[in-house]
Specification:
This protein has helices spanning 2-30, 33-63, 67-77, 84-97, 101-114, 119-132, 136-149, 154-166, 170-183, 187-203, 207-220, 224-240, 244-275, 279-292, 297-309. It is an all-alpha fold.
Length: 311
Amino acid sequence: MQKVRKIVWLIMGGIFLGSSLLVIAAEGEKVSPGTVARDEKELKRLEKKQVEQYRVLGKLYETKQDWKKTIGIYEKLLPLVPDKGEIYRILSRLYERTKAYDKAIAAYDKLLELYPQQRSQYYERLSWIYTRMKDKEKAVEFAKKTLMENPQESRIRSQVAGIYSQNGMFEEAEKEYKKAIELSSNIQDSYRYRLELARLYKKFAKSDLAEAEYKEIMAKATDRWTKEQAQRALFDIYRKENRMGEVTEEYEKSLSRMEEKSLKLYKSLGAKYLRLGEDEKALEMYKKASALAPQDKEVTRTLKKLEQKNK
């Protein structure tokens, strides 16, 4: 029995010694310069492939609007790329979209560390995030920081005005929109800022001021989109105030006066073109006159003669 015990202890000792030697050998292999270099090379190759695949997969998920998976991919990608700023920019946008505001703030804080020269745009985004979080104090703090960076830029003034508006600060918002209009060097942009100012007036129940701005935009703005937006908003004011009938009558009278003047000019120019022998131009004028006044016998008679002559 004692012999058996000795044999068992010898076997167990041999197993323990053998496993210890194996561990030592394995540890020895791990710290071998050649092995480390080989593993580093393999890891570098693998990570490069991973980065490529993550980027493609991230775009695929984004196209599918699967924001949770898109975020997960970019979070995995973050430690693998040298240009972390690029990934933080993508993640900050995605966090905002998914209302993960605390994570968005952390991402913008990182971007502020990496790109302090671009702090104006990050202050602006942070201001909007705090606005959505109903943290008025922080929202205003970052709005003011944004202004300090670019006090002469009309776009920034307009953006800050929007932040003030969202935080219920009418006077501050009005001041910034007016400053944006004043600073704008582009006529089209200036009327878009006026459109925002009119919306501010409408939002804070200052319909008379809103109406005046919308009318000014409709009369003088150069681009069709701004004019249409102003017209739609103005008609909404009329509808809510039960003034559609009254306003329609005003426009009908105004247009009638314009049509009367136009008719006189069409007939006058048509007659002059006839005397000059410019029949095609005369025909065009009389066609327009006929459209306005189909009952005018003189216009109808002259138009028929011109159409027969030009057959």
